[in-house]
Amino acid sequence: MKQLTNRQREVLDFIVAFQDRDGRFPTGPEIAKHFGFRDPSPAYQHLDALEAKGYLRIKRYGYGRPTSIQLTDRGVSAVLPSWPMLGSISAGPLTEVDQMQEHRISKLTDIVPQLQYGDFFLAVSGDSMVDAGINQGELVVVRPGEPVTENSICCVWVEGEGSTLKYVRSDADRITLIPANAQYQEQVYPLDHVRIQGVVIASLSVTPR
Prior knowledge:
Largest sheet: 9 strands, mixed
Number of helices: 4
Strand order of the largest sheet: 4-3-5-6-11-7-8-9-10
Distance between the termini: 45 Å
């Protein structure tokens, strides 16, 4: 694989820093704005070059614009790996997520081998998912953009109410949030009031010293 130019290195570093700060990868226009490009075209060209050199994998739709970005193993090795601790997530009643973006977790690939850039951690508060093996005080690893199945536990944001962990069942015009604890009821919301922020791919028990 070819080495990066200075500008490509700057773009890669910006992508990683942006993801660390915001919990997602930047869009072409956001990259263009950061580097002072007049339009997004140079940003997309740099993304294409990073992909061609093996540092990124890009999913595209429509006119070929990126819809998601993922670092490859080569890309991971080119930057210092760390994942954001975004806050705590309710597994009981809905509540706003407390932001704690200054907290970071790193070098966990031995514990969670499938960990990828773009994943983030949340601390569980509440007991609505205990029958699924997710208990209060544990950490869950959430992956944005992961396909949702009937067995997926999702980090879900509900307009006006906040975020929660639940199973998700989607119908034509509504979403049902399903707890894994008989003490809690299913909750039904209009489809446009709910956003799935990611799928839980792992949970970790944390024992304070």
